[in-house]
């Protein structure tokens, strides 16, 4: 974006020099949620800004923050290998912040040799009743149901070994909700959780900040791709013109999908250019983007947006169906990170690995809440885009 090129040119140059020192570049295009086989993160010392953010968000010492970042990198690299090793007995996996290890769930059918191989690779192993295929099939059946507005969403929770259906607390006793839950339980193993409020998208009217605009809607840039940037689909339809923070023309929405999905991409021209950087807004240093390896459930993740700037939390769930008032959106990742109106489309990043673009949530950054993002690799695959990386 133009302001990065003009006002942050000194910072960008310094980051570029740092990025050339032993850093690997990862290919970006991948199918579904699988991490590209060559996208394994390498060992790197975290920036002082990122360590500060980890200490602030999670109450860690600097040594603990460094250890957690390295443990998450190892877990991210191990997860796709663990899935292949477990095969049909795979029951899901998640990062355990207390142990600093990836936990891999397997069904009783997993052989002793399989369990030993997982442990040798560094994973903790938990035996569960239901495999991931059964749980995914149950969620797919629930996706076909018509959900009342008080049902916030549903996702497979590997640690709970069930499909978790989230219901707005005030609507738990509603007859339509109870009817939906009865149908959901018939589809497979279901656990019900309550939440304070229903999710909503996070677009906003034209106000100040560091945004892009389409019509009278303000949203946030997600990640640079070659030829443009990716963002949320609810921010604009294909063909809609986009203006930058200074009101000048950037480009147009080349593709957009919402609901069902919540992703889009915008071409960049007219003196604008792309850089593989996520703004830290002075809270942390601007972050380089080096790839798109998928962080596991339980890993730390941070979000950058034009309203509330930089906030961090953890990955709570993957492949969740979120029931917005405009319609259900599928294959979303749920996080404990807060967000507010205007943050839509902004970057979710774990370390230096792009994760996705902000879609919606509930709550705010004063009282807390939860936020969902559309995974980046799905967007890249859908539009045939290549992530701009160092």
Overview of this protein structure:
By secondary structure, the protein is an alpha+beta fold. It has 2 domains: 1-62 and 69-78 and 199-390, Trypsin-like serine proteases (Thrombin, subunit H, Beta Barrel), CATH 2.40.10.10; 132-198, GMP Synthetase, Chain A, domain 3 (2-Layer Sandwich). The chain is 24% helix and 33% strand. The chain has helices at 2-7, 9-19, 48-58, 62-86, 112-120, 132-143, 175-187, 376-383; strands spanning 90-96, 101-106, 124-127, 151-157, 162-168, 190-195, 200-201, 204-205, 212-214, 217-219, 223-225, 228-231, 241-243, 249-257, 263-267, 277-278, 287-288, 300-305, 309-324, 327-335, 347-350, 353-364, 368-375. The protein has a 6-stranded antiparallel beta barrel with strand order 18-19-20-23-22-21. A 5-stranded antiparallel β-sheet has the order 11-12-15-14-13, with helices on one face. Strand 16 (277-278) and strand 17 form a beta hairpin. Helix 3 packs across helix 4 (62-86). The longest helix has 25 residues, at 62-86. The two termini are 16 Å apart. Mean pLDDT is 86; it is low at 1-43 and 205-209.
């Amino acid at each position: 974006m133009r302001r990065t090129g003009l006002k942050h040119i000194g910072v960008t140059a310094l980051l570029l020099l740092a990025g050339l020192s032993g850093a690997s570049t990862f290919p970006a295009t991948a199918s579904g949620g699988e991490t590209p086989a060559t996208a394994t993160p390498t060992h790197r010392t975290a920036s002082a800004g990122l360590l500060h953010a980890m200490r602030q968000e999670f109450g860690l010492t600097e040594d603990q923050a460094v250890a957690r970042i390295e443990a998450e990198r190892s877990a991210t690299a191990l997860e796709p290998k663990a899935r292949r090793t477990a095969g049909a007995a795979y029951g899901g996996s998640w990062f355990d912040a207390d142990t600093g290890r990836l936990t891999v769930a397997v069904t009783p059918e997993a052989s002793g040799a399989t369990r030993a191989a997982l442990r040798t690779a560094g994973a903790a192993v938990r035996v569960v009743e239901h495999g991931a295929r059964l749980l995914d099939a149950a969620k797919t059946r629930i996706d076909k149901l018509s959900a009342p507005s008080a049902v916030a969403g549903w996702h497979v929770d590997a640690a709970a070994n069930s499909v978790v259906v989230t219901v707005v607390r005030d609507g738990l006793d509603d007859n339509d909700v109870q009817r939906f839950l009865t149908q959901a339980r018939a589809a497979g193993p279901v656990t019900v959780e309550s939440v304070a409020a229903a999710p909503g998208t996070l677009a906003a009217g034209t106000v100040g900040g560091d945004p892009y605009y389409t019509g009278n809607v303000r949203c946030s840039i997600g990640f640079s791709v070659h030829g443009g940037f990716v963002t949320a689909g609810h921010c604009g339809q294909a063909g809609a013109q986009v203006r930058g923070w200074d009101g000048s023309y950037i480009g147009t929405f080349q593709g957009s999908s919402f609901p069902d999905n919540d992703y889009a991409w915008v071409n960049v021209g007219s003196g604008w250019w792309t850089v593989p950087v996520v703004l830290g807004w002075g809270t942390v240093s601007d972050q380089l983007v080096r790839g798109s390896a998928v962080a596991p459930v339980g890993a730390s993740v941070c979000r950058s947006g034009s309203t509330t700037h930089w906030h961090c939390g953890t990955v709570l769930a993957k492949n969740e169906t979120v029931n917005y008032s405009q319609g259900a959106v599928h294959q979303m990742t749920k996080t404990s990170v807060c967000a507010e109106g205007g943050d839509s489309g902004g970057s979710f990043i774990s370390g230096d690995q792009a994760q996705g673009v902000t879609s919606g949530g509930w709550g705010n950054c004063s009282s807390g809440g939860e936020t969902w993002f559309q995974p980046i690799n799905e967007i890249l695959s859908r539009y045939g885009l290549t992530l701009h990386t160092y």
